[in-house]
Amino acid sequence: MAGAGSSRREFLRWLAAGGTGMALAGTLPGTAAADTGEIVVITHVTLIDGTGSAPRHDVSVVLAGDRIAWVGGSGQVPETGGARVIDGRGKYLIPGLWDMHTHGADLEEIVPPLHLAHGVTGVREMWGYAENRATKGKIERGELLGPRVVMASGIVDGPVTLLGPPVLQASTEAEARAVVRAEKAAGAEFVKTYSYLGPDVVRAVADEARVQGLRFSGHWPYKLSHLQASDLGQHSFEHFFGVSIHCSSRRDEILARLKVTPYDPAAPRAFFDLARRLEFDSVTTYDPGMALAYFGRLRRNGTWHSPTLTINRIVTQPAETHRHDPRLKYVPADVRESWAMGIERFAPKTPADIARQERYYRETLRLVGVAHEAGVGLIGGTDCLNPYTFPGSGLHEELAFLVEAGLSPVRALKTVTGDAAKFLGRERTSGTIAVGKEADLVLLDANPAADIRNVAKIDTVITRGRVLDRTERRRMLDAAEAAANRPVATSARVRSLARRGCCC
Ligand SMILES: [Zn+2]
């Protein structure tokens, strides 16, 4: 029998030759990486590959360094020559998850490890600022273990805003263009737009973003309809704000009222509260024809919905609902206090209000199903670090809500894997389990296709080819808990976000 060294070489030769034909020679991440990077083989596993395809049984997946090198039937893998072998019998392999709406990566000892320990290997960070850009840099240089980060610009809003510093305010087209250029120079990968931007300013942001080769995503800009914003190229709408209005027979009357109502600098929340009331009430005037036309236009424009059901569920319930969540042990005291304060601004209080918001939330779930049926792209995100919205485990909740909305478990998984990568323009490298893709994977102890809650039953997470087994994940979680119980230098931005209460 050959020694491990020659056996490893033979195995690499077999891989480079394309194995039994399913791997594509030349798509390995350079022979150098395959020669020097760790070879990991996951054998006899049930594969759910992120494309929406049905689970495939008895598959083996070979990782070379930070890439997937081979995928095929377990019977076709030769002697692996000293590679690390993970027995996948009775287990389920899914792509690493993308939380497509996150905040607070700069809470470095807590947020990045919570994402990874729960299988979230990529995040779309929805408010870019100096501290979280620095965190992204550390992760990319290998100085900090964390998920891949796709970074937003700073949040761009109008002269009246619900947000505190460091919100970027633009009143004119010239200011809007300058902000887009400056944020691109600072590392923004897309522009994050907010609720109170004026219509001409949204148009200028859209145009300058296009010139700069960026997309823009964010809240419904209230002075335009969703249709107008979508026509301007808005890539995603966050939080499902305003969908019930756009599916209502009273749409035009409601939009006209919002258009003529001014933003009050002395009471900036008044407009938001009015819009919120109008969307709660719109559930009673649902019009299937309006919904069909609305969702059809978004689909044709390539505008996606990012319904962030996790935060939507939290803020439509009474404030005390989440006060004893055991995961609060991972949250520093000052953020916990901000959460307790922030939730009070949103949570329903009277029985009538509780019933009204419950009805709105149920209708939101139903409309997510209608959007899906109509072919509108959906991405899954939590809005974590808003009250009681936890990094990592929050995305498991989001998946369960998407299934409740009518997606099959396999289809829900696709929204946070293959579809997320497609939305980000990363489908060649991320989101599915196929040769040449980044080695970001999650090995589960139970079948998520049978019950989506099994996505929380994690055996192993693999990030950039690095294996985080049970022991390592336990260590990460314990360290995050310990960090949360020390006085932590939470950034002013994280605190202001947590205090705001909902939906940034
Ligand atoms: Zn947010």
Task: Describe the protein's architecture and organization.
The protein is an alpha/beta fold and 504 residues long. It has two domains: 8-95 and 435-481, Urease, subunit C, domain 1 (Roll); 97-239 and 305-432 and 489-500, Alpha-Beta Barrel (TIM Barrel). The protein is 40% helix and 17% strand. It has 19 helices and 16 strands. The strands form two sheets. Strands 1, 2, 3, 4, 5, 14, 15 and 16 form an eight-stranded mixed beta sheet that branches. Strands 6, 7, 8, 9, 10, 11, 12 and 13 form an eight-stranded parallel beta sheet that branches. The protein is globular. The relative contact order is 0.16. The model is unreliable at 20-35 (pLDDT under 50). Zinc ion (ZN) binds next to loops.
Secondary structure elements and their pairing?
Layout: H1 4-16, H2 30-36, E1 39-47, E2 56-64, E3 67-73, E4 84-87, E5 92-95, E6 97-102, H3 111-117, E7 120-125, H4 130-140, E8 148-157, E9 168-169, H5 173-185, E10 190-193, H6 199-211, E11 216-218, H7 226-231, E12 234-238, H8 243-246, H9 251-260, H10 269-281, H11 288-301, E13 304-306, H12 309-315, H13 333-344, H14 351-373, H15 393-404, H16 409-415, H17 418-423, E14 441-444, E15 458-463, E16 466-468, H18 470-484, H19 492-500
Parallel strand pairs: 1-4, 1-5, 6-7, 7-8, 8-9, 8-10, 10-11, 11-12, 12-13
Antiparallel strand pairs: 1-2, 2-3, 5-14, 14-15, 15-16
Helix pairs in contact: 3-18, 5-6, 13-19, 15-16
The protein binds zinc ion.
